[in-house]
């Protein structure tokens, strides 16, 4: 599934969205370099997430002639918690040897993707630096929420953690601020952002 998308801030560009796959790993790693190094998703973690939940990972591409270029992505997995957790952001060391619906536990919490989880936990929203500050990110997040709804993904909410200065950004895309997050990823200081999905 891919869909041409109108992004007012990308005039004249052939922009489209499609679910990501493991073949997009290198491109995702390049886009992710927009983050400070201690907040980036590693290439190995991209391989893990794109293997586990490709249907929850969406890319924004621009196409010129026969070439397509990833300029933004939303990367997610599943959790049984109602907000993002440190455990959901981790990657089981032995994930390659796990059966598709097996999970890895640490201190009673599932590490990484929980196939039975009813929450979509976003772990990366990234836009290539040259397209930042133009409304592309907000449009991508809104398109992602619509995509999850229209793809009939079985989930009751979408969650993420955000820096304080990005609360307004996510609220404009429909998320609600649930206050400070206990997550200690990259040193902590995050806020839980949640959007409830329609029950139908």
Brief synopsis:
The chain has 200 residues and is of the alpha+beta class. 22% of the residues lie in helices and 30% in strands.
Outline the secondary-structure elements:
Layout: E1 3-4, E2 14-19, H1 25-32, H2 43-52, E3 58-64, E4 67-79, H3 86-89, E5 104-106, E6 109-111, E7 119-127, H4 136-150, E8 157-162, H5 167-172, E9 176-180, E10 191-196
Parallel strand pairs: 7-8
Antiparallel strand pairs: 1-2, 2-3, 3-4, 4-7, 5-6, 8-10, 9-10
Helix pairs in contact: 1-2
Distance between the termini: 21 Å
Strand fraction: 25-35%
| Number of helices, where a helix is a run of at least 4 consecutive DSSP H or I residues | 5
As for the CATH topology, it is: Aminopeptidase
Q: Helix share of residues?
A: 10-25%
Q: Mind telling me the CATH class?
A: Alpha Beta
CATH superfamily: Gcn5-related N-acetyltransferase (GNAT)
Query: CATH architecture, please?
Result: 3-Layer(aba) Sandwich
Number of domains: 1
Average pLDDT works out at 88
Output the radius of gyration: 16 Å
Q: Looking across the biggest beta sheet, what order are the strands in? A: 1-2-3-4-7-8-10-9
Low-confidence stretches: none
Structural class from helices and strands?
A: alpha+beta
Count of distinct strands: 10
**Strand/helix succession:** EEHHEEHEEEHEHEE
Could you describe the largest sheet, including whether it forms a barrel?
8 strands, mixed
The coarse silhouette is globular
Keywords: Acyltransferase, Transferase
Protein name: N-acetyltransferase domain-containing protein
GO cellular component, one term: cytoplasm
GO molecular function, one term: aralkylamine N-acetyltransferase activity
